[in-house]
Amino acid sequence: MATSLTDKCILITGASSGIGTSCARFLAQAGARLILAARRKEKLQALADELQTNYQTRTLLLCVDVQDRQAVMTAIAGLPAAWKAIDVLINNAGLSRGLEKQYESSVQDWEEMIDTNIKGLLYVTRAVVPGMVAQGHGHVVNIGSIAARQTYAGGSVYCATKAAVKALSEGLKIDLLGTPVRVTNIEPGLVETEFSNVRFRGDDTKAKSVYTGMTPLTPDDIADTILFAVTRPAHVNISEIFVMPTDQSSVAHVHRGSV
Ligand code: NDP
Ligand code: 8X3
After folding, report:
1. What is the extent of the structural domain holding 203?
2. What residue owns the CA closest to ligand 2's atom 4?
3. What would the pLDDT profile of 51-87 be if each residue is shown by its tens digit?
4. What does pTM read for this prediction?
5. Domain assignment of residue 257, yes or no
6. Nearest-atom index, ligand 1, CA of 22
7. Can you give the CATH number for the domain in which 160 is found?
């Protein structure tokens, strides 16, 4: 039987934009209660208001930087009783910075990517998964990337962080074997979000050029995929989903000319 999301408690990190925001909309429509986490509180509040209006969704906002281990642990430990039993965790918060050569790029950029995409994901997982094991159910969805499978010029540190997400997803599933807790790694190709604006630090022209002449995935495409993974019957673990735009066949092969 498909897993119902009605009244399920779902924590989404990086809910203030892109894939995280779309996930919130899809999962709210499916009847879930949502813990929305990110640093930009006003974005989370606007999303919570929208979900309340459209779906009467109950939400709880966590304004937290996942790089800050103490803040993550305190925020999760301090959840009100009604929100402590988390059914699904979507580890989505993440970013890339720059496209410079590995031997020339900024050490600070490396640290931000590693601290967010690897350590931040680990902190949230460490804070949430023991509760899932104790309660006898749960599902962790990590947002990896095509970048875990294929390294591209200037992307080596970002790619390394997503390769780490792949290893952490596989390792978590191994460590959870014998429990009913499920683990899924979603690996998208190009999705048009704020991702490239963040990579190029607000340079909209450069960010737009990433998607010029092609049809990228939308954040809704990924949310739809995640909705599929988390609604499978309890005995089905979707381990990984690699989802690409039709206009992309590898990190280096993008068909431009369709639009
Ligand atoms: P966006 O930039 O649109 O969203 C990123 C989200 O992550 C924001 O909500 C941001 O919130 C949050 N975030 C970033 N840093 C932190 C932090 N330190 N603490 C808490 N939250 C943080 O990009 P996407 O939606 O595209 O990215 C979502 C995930 O998808 C990322 O892990 C990305 O690597 C992955 N991905 C993206 C692809 C793409 O082509 N777009 C393809 C494959 C994977 P705030 O700034 O408010 O804190
Ligand atoms: C984001 C997609 O190809 O820019 O993970 O790395 S890509």
Report:
1. 9-248
2. 190
3. 999 999 999 999 999 999 999 999 999 999 999 999 9
4. 0.98
5. no
6. 25
7. 3.40.50.720
